Amino acid sequence: MAEHGPRVLRVCRAVVGPVAAEDAWSETFLAALVADPRLRPGSDVAAWLVTIAHRKAVDVV
């Protein structure tokens, strides 16, 4: 989370603004924890998290 958290928050802020971004950020990491066992070894974790963040932020809107 420390490595990717700031990037995920930037994505969330870009989609929903600063107020709702923290909710989308939290939802992103909760979804990532659930989906983590299905993540293939060698996957681009940053890209994966950004995709989840964008989808969660859109859900907030």
From TrEMBL:
The domain of life is: Bacteria
Its protein name is: RNA polymerase sigma-54 factor RpoN
The record, for Pfam families, names:
Sigma70_r2
Q: Which organism is it from?
A: uncultured Quadrisphaera sp
**SUPFAM superfamilies for the chain:** Sigma2 domain of RNA polymerase sigma factors (SSF88946)
Matching InterPro entries = RNA_pol_sigma70_r2, RNA_pol_sigma_r2
Q: Where is the RNA polymerase sigma-70 region domain?
A: 3-59
What Gene3D superfamilies has UniProt attached to this entry? 1.10.1740.10
- GO BP annotations listed: DNA-templated transcription initiation
GO function term, MF aspect, one? DNA-binding transcription factor activity
